[in-house]
Amino acid sequence: MTTARRPLVAGERVLFIDSRERRYLVTLRTGKQFHSHMGIINHDDVIGTDEGSYVRTTKGGRLIVFRPTLADYQLKMKRGAQVIYPKDVAMILVEADIFPGAFVVEAGTGSGALTLALARAVGDSGRVVSYELREDHHAQALENIDAWYEGLGGKPENLELKVGDIFGGIEETGVDRMILDMPEPWDAIGTTTESLLPGGILCCYLPSIPQVSQTVEAMRARGFDLISTFESLLRTWNIDGQSVRPDHRMVGHTGFLITGRKLAGAQDL
User: Fold this and answer.
1) Contact 197, 257 (CB under 8 A)
2) CB-based burial label for 165 (10 Å; 0-12, 13-18, 19+)
3) Strands 127-132 and 103-107
4) Which of 104, 84, 57 shows the shortest CA–CA distance to 256?
5) Number of Cβ within a 10 Å radius of residue 169
6) Predicted local confidence at residue 1, as pLDDT
7) Full 3-state SS string of the chain
8) Which candidate, 203, 206, 184, places its Cα nearest to that of 254?
9) Which residues pair with 64 in a beta bridge?
10) Mean pLDDT by 10-residue block, N- to C-terminus, for the chain (269 residues)?
11) Is the dihedral of CA 247, 251, 252, 258 positive or negative?
12) pLDDT value of position 268
């Protein structure tokens, strides 16, 4: 079976990667140029080629061009708030069991990195509503999300971004999964989590152990069980012939994840 060719087109984002694996996120535009210390690349010379192609700069530099993955975009997009790193996004998607067709509520949106992953995971049959308290963070997240969906038909209708305070509860009901990325999630447990279905999963992302302790105690007091607290550490390896060793740098602690499942009748405890 022959795989259909998908050449790069004007209006889509690409990733230029140099010999030192530095990455440059660029949107291809007819008649435009990409400038770097390695020289200039004409966008018109890239449009129509296949991803995985080598492109030459005016100074003879050589870069590879690919379409960016979602993880690439999450690390390169503009930040209003600190993004959740891809390694933690991956753990949230699995440990919070974000499935196609799920109804997920997130708070807060931040720069929109996790929001994009949630929207992809629930698919067309699911729904994601994301709350953000700060207007400036909401605006930046909306810009990032719109940029990701440029050329893909625009932001899907089942992804909704709201500005608001969730601590007094939310209007949504029948929520399958709830993700809280905020400094004091314990203030939302027992009010906002009333919207979570019995058996639903609450996942909280926190940077410090005192926050974790207070959150876990609030979850236990408000009818959550199977509570788990963990972190993910990412260590890459250098493989070069017979030289096989861990890289000198690793992505260590970024945040703690807490998951728990809501018991039936938990709102009455």
Assistant:
1) no
2) middle
3) parallel
4) 84
5) 14
6) 57
7) CCCCCCCCCCCCEEEEECCCCCEEEEECCCCCEEEECCEEEEHHHHCCCCCCEEEECCCCCEEEEECCCHHHHHHHCCCCCCCCCHHHHHHHHHHCCCCCCCEEEEECCCCCHHHHHHHHHHCCCCEEEEEECCHHHHHHHHHHHHHHHCCCCCCCCCEEEEECCCCCCCCCCCEEEEEECCCCHHHCCCCHHHHEEEEEEEEEEECCHHHHHHHHHHHHHCCEEEEEEECCCECCEEEECCEEEECCCCECCCCEEEEEEECCCHHHC
8) 206
9) 17, 54
10) 81 93 94 94 96 95 96 90 90 98 97 97 98 96 93 89 94 97 95 96 97 97 96 93 91 94 72
11) negative
12) 47
Residue 85 tokens, joined: 């790193």
CB-count exposure of residue 86 (10 Å: 0-12, 13-18, 19+): buried
Structure token pair of residue 244: 């096989």
Domains and CATH numbers, the chain: 13-66 (3.10.330.20), 71-268 (3.40.50.150)
